[in-house]
Amino acid sequence: MTWSYFIIFAIISVICWAVGATAAWKEKKAMAYALTGIGLTVFFAYILFMWISLERPPLRTMGETRLWYSFFLPLAGLIVYSRWHYKWILSFSTLLATVFVCINLFKPEIHSKTLMPALQSPWFAPHVIVYMMSYALLGAAMVMAIYLLFIKKSDATEEELDITDNLVYVGMAFVTLGMLMGALWAKEAWGHYWAWDPKETWAAITWLSYLAYIHYRRYKPTHPKPALAMLIACFCLLQMCWWGINYLPSAQGVSVHTYSME
């Protein structure tokens, strides 16, 4: 299985997600669940085929991690829709997933089967997969924040704020678990749990920023707008942690976390 087949799986998946999102707007819940689920199954099948073809988890490069993010976004949207029945959440998750799918289509990356010794640790795959799930959940929380701040005409309801908070709580739990797995991976690969590598530094900044949001919401529950703005800023920090560090001069040739096709 190579990147040349990706467009087939991607088109089928995006069509299923889009039709499922349309069904959600029309209150056809069974169809929304079924089509979104089919799209997720097709997309995950491609990830599995890539895993088998590469003889390793497809997690090494940015292109490969975008595969997981494209998968987890509709999954997070489906979870939110099934729990709180927000009709628009599947549309937003589909739109964001399609953006990442298009990036992979227009900027394909060819990968080899080989992995550097550090990436052969059994902690590597679960560490990255857990992080991708957390990014998707926190991405859904950011979408909620944008909707409540800039799109919705009236003030946010308590239920809507609870949805946003719950997404952050679960996303933070995954981030924390991912950091712990990363520390175990680092200990096995490099002999230390934490070394203030640029990636690790930005991971700590991101974790602390979401922790600040949680504390603000807990002690200032009647002032949601600053918290929602804070949540958008937190997601920007998360993007810096995920891919922004690749462009930092301080990370070039130093960080072991920068993605490369070499």
UniProtKB/TrEMBL annotation:
The chain crosses the membrane at residues 6-25, 32-54, 66-81, 88-108, 128-151, 163-186, 201-216, 228-245. Residues 86-248 form the Cytochrome c assembly protein domain. Keywords: Cytochrome c-type biogenesis, Membrane, Transmembrane, Transmembrane helix. It is a multi-pass membrane protein. It is found in: Membrane. Required for the export of heme to the periplasm for the biogenesis of c-type cytochromes. This is Heme exporter protein C. It comes from Segatella maculosa OT 289.
